[in-house]
Specification:
The complex is a heterodimer of chains A (68) and B (540). Chain A is mainly α. The radius of gyration of chain A is 14 Å and the shape is globular. By secondary structure, chain B is an alpha+beta fold. Among the domains of chain B are: 235 residues, 3-Layer(bba) Sandwich (FAD/NAD(P)-binding domain); 98 residues, Glutaredoxin (3-Layer(aba) Sandwich), CATH 3.40.30. Chain B contains 13 helices and 26 strands. Chain B is globular and about 70 Å long. The structure holds flavin-adenine dinucleotide. The site of flavin-adenine dinucleotide has 33 residues of chain B, from helix 1, strand 2, strand 9 and helix 8.
Chain lengths: 68, 540
């Protein structure tokens, strides 16, 4: 079972962020989309709950205006 | 178009209505003798109303179009002279689907994992053969199908509709109390009312072709993402009757429709798919752009829409024709009671409430499947490809992969015809669910639960043999037959009726004429049941 606590800490945020950046820089811009797609799906599967996933998508989209 | 057996031709006949000095008034006119109009005609005749069916052609569907006939459609058709059984006998039964990614099998699914159902999940039979079997049955019951009678200008009045009908011998006018538009996706009746269904058009073009071949593949649905023989696109292979196979090939956004129809090009594409050694003959080809859309009402006073005239979906999920058959089944008993004057004001409205809910569910699933196959941007394609790669290595991600969620009957938990449960039930079924089948034994021998239901209201009672019950009840002119489950009636030989419906001694289920559950209770209480019947007739 995946943990269902609303925020399972994110306590080592610095390290998590650094790992993300390191991975992005190592795959390079040309393959970043491929990498990010896969990562997003893995993270979505970890979150599991559809309502939470939808809320997170909405939060991310809120700061990105739709393409004209 | 080549290669198919010739279609039957049905001769034009002059109707006595063409010689009447003033327009003849009919209770029901159905415009369009496709799958839906024909099914509706069978239903209405069983209700004692012979509709006039106007059909502008003199034959069945030209292309094969619909091939996957769902369990629910087979169950519905079987109520009319066993047409469901005849379709099954003529067609190819299948329950298994396989999804491939590049050159490997991704996963496989079984659409009917449990036994104890008379009908399989799907029978593949091409639309023109289904229609032939429906027409054969309609002839047996004396239907009035008018071939080469094309509906033209329509005029709506408060208490009737007038329609001009064009024939090879000129035009005549017909009047009807109710006009049912089953005239397909390009509905002329819909255009006359100035209505446009709302929804989505997908950018991709699809080559749909039927080939005839003696192939060694099993009768399963095979779907490919990015197969080696059709780079970057999707493909589908599915068996039909008479050694005909359906092939769908996605062509992308920019495909040139004219060029893609070229028989040499089609043959080349198919040969790449099937390999160099398998002889085949291309029998039918068409290039489609798909849409998912519905009208937001189906009832416009005395004009009612059913089937593709009301809603359209992309074919991945086999939901178009199967939805139309459910429309016909939902509408017929309601319309018949309105014609006979025993329905309440809400009954016809419940047709559109229920079937629009069904259409929206079909549209949701068909849209998601088509979106999955046809990503619109580079980023959404990257996400799709990531999902496929993940699914290959981790079964958890298979749920994301969508090659079509195949047609299942609609549930109407919010239908106004439902009565709320007065007690707890431990089953997936609820008021607004279609009946599920189970084996039973009657005085006539082994049979099926669904054969005991349909065509009239039925109160199914699980009795221990002692409960005093009437044989039937009459509520406001509506006859309700009582069917007992138990030693004194229909035997639940495999205990599957009890399991699927969570029966205990005394449990009652009220089924509508379309075999949907209207209400249920734990004990026979006449007043409660009468109220539930009134409600199911739209009287409250
Ligand atoms: C490639 C493809 C694959 C499909 N696969 C499936 C599948 O596997 N399963 C499934 O369930 N569905 C499938 N469908 C959808 C299915 O074919 C339709 O949903 C179905 O045909 C709808 O039936 P209908 O009777 O509403 O309309 P139609 O079949 O289009 O019939 C309409 C009829 O009305 C007649 N008509 C039109 N105008 C007039 C007029 N003015 N006067 C008199 N007559 C008129 C026409 O001649 C025609 O006979 C598929 C569709 C396509 C294109």
């Amino acid at each position: 079972m995946t943990e269902r606590r609303p925020n399972p800490a994110f306590s080592d945020a610095d390290a998590s962020y650094a790992a993300l950046v390191a991975a992005l820089e190592s795959v390079g811009d040309a393959r970043a989309q491929e990498f990010l797609s896969r990562l997003v799906l893995l993270l979505a599967a970890e979150v599991g709950d559809h309502a939470r996933i939808e809320a997170l998508i909405a939060r991310a989209a809120a700061s990105v205006p739709p393409a004209p | 178009m080549t290669g198919f057996d010739p279609r039957p031709r049905f001769p034009y006949r002059r109707s006595a209505d063409q010689d009447a000095p003033t327009p003849v008034r009919r209770p029901v006119v159905i415009v369009g003798g496709g799958m839906v109009g024909l099914t509706l005609a069978l239903e209405l005749i069983a209700e004692g109303i012979t509709p006039v069916v106007l059909e502008r052609n003199d034959t069945v569907s030209e292309g094969s179009r619909s091939i996957c006939q769902a369990k629910r459609s087979l169950e519905i058709w079987n109520r009319f002279g066993g047409v469901g059984d005849r379709i099954r006998a003529r067609g190819v039964t299948w329950n298994t689907g396989k999804v491939f990614f590049r050159d490997a099998l991704l996963y496989e699914f079984n659409l009917l994992p449990e036994g104890g159902h008379r009908m399989p999940a799907f029978v593949n039979l091409q639309q023109y053969l289904v229609e032939e079997l429906l027409i054969e049955q309609l002839r047996r019951v004396g239907a009035d199908i008018r071939w080469l009678h094309a509906a033209g200008a329509m005029t709506r009045f408060d208490d009737h509709v007038a329609i001009d009908v064009a024939t090879p011998e000129g035009t005549y006018r017909l009047e009807c109390d109710w006009l049912i538009a089953c005239d397909g996706a390009g509905s002329g009746i819909r255009k006359q009312l100035g209505l446009t269904p709302e929804g989505e058009v997908f950018p991709d073009k699809f080559l749909i072709t039927d080939v005839r071949m003696r192939a060694p593949f099993p009768a399963e649905r095979r779907f490919w993402f990015e197969p080696p023989f059709h780079a970057g696109q999707t493909a589908l292979l599915h068996r039909q009757a008479d050694d005909v196979w359906r092939i769908d090939l996605q062509l992308g956004h920019d495909a040139d429709v004219q060029r893609e129809r070229d028989p040499a090009r089609v043959t080349e594409r198919v040969r790449r798919m099937l390999g160099p050694d398998l002889p085949f003959e291309v029998a039918w080809t068409s290039v489609y752009v798909f849409q998912c859309r519905t009208l937001d009402r189906y009832v416009y006073d005395r004009v009612i829409f059913a089937g593709d005239s009301a809603h359209q979906v992309s074919p991945f999920g086999a939901r178009g024709g199967n939805a139309g058959v459910q429309d016909a089944d939902n509408l017929a008993w309601k319309l018949a009671r309105v014609v006979r004057g025993t329905a309440g004001a809400g009954l016809l409205d419940s047709y559109q409430v229920e079937r629009i809910a069904g259409a929206r569910e079909d549209i949701l699933h068909s849209t998601r499947a088509t979106d999955f196959m046809t990503p619109r941007t580079a980023a959404s394609r990257a996400m799709r490809d990531a999902a496929l790669l993940l699914a290959r290595d981790d079964p958890k991600f298979r749920g994301v992969i969508n090659s079509g969620r195949l047609s299942v009957p609609a549930h109407f938990p919010d239908s106004p015809l439902n009565t709320a449960d007065p007690a707890a039930f431990a089953t997936r079924l609820a008021p607004g669910s279609p009946a599920v089948d189970a084996p039973v034994r009657t005085v006539d021998g082994p049979g099926w639960l669904l054969e005991q239901l349909g065509g009239r209201f039925v109160l199914l009672v699980a009795d221990a043999g002692r409960t005093p019950l009437p044989e039937s009840m009459t509520v406001g002119g509506e006859r309700v037959d009582v069917v007992r489950i138990g030693p004194a009636g229909c035997r639940d030989t495999d205990n599957l009726v009890a399991a699927r419906y969570d029966l205990a001694p005394g449990t009652c289920y009220l089924f509508r004429p379309d075999q949907y559950i209207a209400a249920r209770t734990r004990e026979f209480d006449r007043a409660w049941i009468e109220a539930a019947i009134s409600n199911a007739l739209g009287r409250t």
